[in-house]
Amino acid sequence: MREDNKIVFTGPVGAGKTTAISVISDMPIISTDAQASDMTLNRKGHTTVAMDYGTLKLDPQTKIHLYGTPGQERFDFMWDILTTGGLGLVLLLDNTRPNPKKDLHFFLHAFRDYIIHAPVVIGISKTDLQNRPSPADYANMLLEVTADLKMLNPIPPIFEIDGRKKEDIKNLVMALLYSIDPGIGDVP
């Protein structure tokens, strides 16, 4: 691994990207939250409009830069900017949204050019509030979506996560890093 590396977190509004980065970052995160003024207001009061940024030191020589994308499609111009030079993608999906399959398909398609060359891990948030679809349902959806898009081989790992729990986010990041370099050490 290089000394400086980048991992990108993406997903729909409210999936937990800002929270996930803040619980694992070694520094207070830089966030571009603004008061929601559109339909996002129905899900939360503030939303990311450019990016979230944090860092994670794996060891004295290796730092991971953590970038969170805005979840709204109108800010998709930031997605290409943030993925440039990235090692991999953490896709967070909110299990309480009306159509998680549509969200899965949308984000995999939106990041298609990036994830052809970079690994992906998927975290399902808010399963404590809504337990369906299950991880097995997501795995089946993923098989359908990836067949449709003719991409993602191997199929990405899927985790149920609580974005507020450092251990859950650490597991996502480690799964992504292991897919890049199986000999990598543990996240502190």
Main sheet properties: 7 strands, mixed
> Helices and strands: which structural class?
alpha/beta
Q: What is the H-and-E element order? A: EHEEEHEHHEHEH
Strand content: 25-35%
Shape: globular
Relative helix content:
25-40%
Strand order of the largest sheet: 2-3-4-1-5-6-7
Point out poorly predicted stretches: none
- Record field, number of beta strands: 7
Mean pLDDT: 85
Spatial gap, N to C terminus: 16 Å
Number of helices: 6
Give Rg in angstroms.
Answer: 15 Å
Could you please describe the fold and organization of this structure?
The structure is a single chain. With 188 residues, this protein is an alpha/beta fold. It has helices spanning 17-24, 77-83, 100-110, 112-115, 135-149, 166-180, and strands at residues 4-10, 30-35, 46-59, 62-68, 88-94, 120-125, 158-161. The chain has a seven-stranded mixed sheet, with helices on both faces. The longest helix has 15 residues, at 135-149. The chain starts with a strand and ends in an 8-residue tail after the last helix.
